[in-house]
Design brief:
Chain lengths: 131, 285
């Protein structure tokens, strides 16, 4: 369950403010979704994330997509309209995380994994998935 | 050449062979790596929120240390550190207001003036000229694919090469005498930090990347990122049924082998041991 988020401003405004991107620049070519390395595993494809934000549809925050995004910058590099979707994904995660929400539970990672995982993996994951 | 060196956390732990081989190579090449005093973790991922300066402090503080050393360049090995340091650097270079705010927040430090450039070690080698490398033990008969992943190349502003058609690692490996083949997954993300929370995603990416490499005839995959290394190497543990073992190497390890430096290879820190392959090719002493 995601936390309750104050909906005084629109999702579109919040996302544009946090990401610094202009969401209506998107012309729906789908290149972002085509190149996304985890696109086929997502419930909402990257270009559909843009559509949902345009429509102020808060359900996008309940998608698996925003957590599956691996911040790989592929969509940002390929977008012909200069929409940095990597930043949009981060903005959406932060809308949830800043409500003091954690997407992962550190205590559930096994001792064996903790011993084996490189520091870069742990630090980056906690940075992206905990509030 | 003397240059400040930013190691980052992982180069001191799971990626120790990456650092050790680079140090050995640097000595031979006349690159004096000056490890920065009091470096701190860069944060590993660049913060992408417009209002977040807090997470930009760690990378910028490291650049202040470089400035304090009296240098205007710093080199690093880890793709993630490179990316985070240079993206933060470009942010403050282009936004004096943010820089001023951060400088006044870090009032124990001298102000950062934006005068430092972060140079990846591969770029440093390229500047010196790959053809000038004193190769003693050419990697003859070894077929490899370079794997760039994300953070050396994206976003475009910090890319060390053409972000869609990079050649820098292929050029290096060819200069070392290896046979280099191209493969379509060279830029594809390995799943990155999801190795912690969506291990199955990383296993799937690893499977696709490595089976594509093998189809092209690769006997080993060469890279520059400790997280990619872990994912492509250690996640093979869960793919033993599907995939014959594929050795994963840091470019610096093959560089060391080609220069005849065999003492710090650190192959015991890998999951798939590259030694049998290199022995079979007659490349190890
Ligand atoms: S690539 Fe850019 S313009 Fe095309 S659908 Fe994605 S965000 Fe929109
Ligand atoms: S940054 Fe996220 S959404 Fe964009 S291509 Fe990479 S994984 Fe997909």
């Amino acid at each position: 369950m995601i936390p309750k988020i104050s909906k005084e401003t629109t999702l579109l405004d919040k996302t544009e403010e946090l990401s610094g991107e202009k969401i209506f620049s998107c012309h729906k070519c789908g290149k972002c979704s085509a190149g996304c390395p985890v696109g086929t595993l997502m419930d909402v494809r990257p270009h559909q994330v843009i559509e949902l934000v345009q429509a102020n549809d808060w359900s996008v925050l309940e998608s698996r997509t925003i957590w599956l995004c691996a911040s790989c910058f592929q969509c940002a590099t390929r977008c012909p309209k200069d929409v940095d979707l990597t930043r949009v994904m981060e903005a959406l995660r932060l809308l949830v995380l800043r409500e003091n929400f954690d997407h992962i539970r550190i205590s559930e990672i096994s001792k064996e994994e903790l011993r084996e995982l490189p520091p870069v993996a742990l630090v980056s994951n906690f940075r992206k998935c905990t509030g | 050449m003397k240059i400040p060196y930013y190691p980052g956390c992982t180069l001191k732990t799971t990626a120790k062979p990456f650092e050790d081989t680079t140090k050995a190579v640097s000595e031979v090449l006349g690159i004096e790596l000056l490890e920065m005093p009091r470096w701190n973790c860069c944060g590993t991922v660049y913060s992408l929120a417009s209002d977040d300066l807090m997470h930009q402090l760690a990378p910028i503080r490291n650049l202040i240390r470089v400035q304090d050393m009296g240098y205007d360049r710093v080199t690093t090995l880890c793709s993630m550190c490179y990316n985070t340091l240079e993206q933060a650097n470009q942010l403050v270079k282009g936004d004096p207001e943010k820089l001023e705010k951060m400088n006044s927040f870090m009032d124990q430090e001298k102000d950062y003036t934006g005068g430092v450039t972060v140079v990846h070690y591969l770029t440093l080698l390229k500047e010196m000229g790959f053809d000038s490398l004193p190769v003693k033990n050419p990697l003859k008969g070894l077929t490899v694919v370079p794997y760039y992943g994300c953070l050396l190349l994206r976003p475009e502003e910090i890319s060390i090469d053409n972000p869609e058609r990079p050649t820098i690692m292929a050029e290096l490996l060819a200069a070392l005498g290896a046979t280099v083949v191209d493969h379509p997954y060279k830029l594809e993300c390995c799943g990155s930090y999801h190795t912690v929370d969506y291990k199955e995603v990383v296993c799937e990416k690893t499977y696709h990347i490595l089976s594509s490499a093998r189809k092209r005839g690769a006997e080993a995959v060469v890279l520059s990122c400790p997280l990619c290394e872990f994912n492509l190497d250690f996640r093979q543990k869960d793919l033993e049924q599907e995939l014959a073992p594929m050795p994963i190497l840091y470019f610096s390890q093959l560089l060391a082998v080609s220069l005849g430096l065999f003492d710090a290879l650190g192959f015991d820190q890998h999951y798939v041991d590259p030694e049998p392959l290199l022995k079979e090719k007659g490349l190890l002493r």
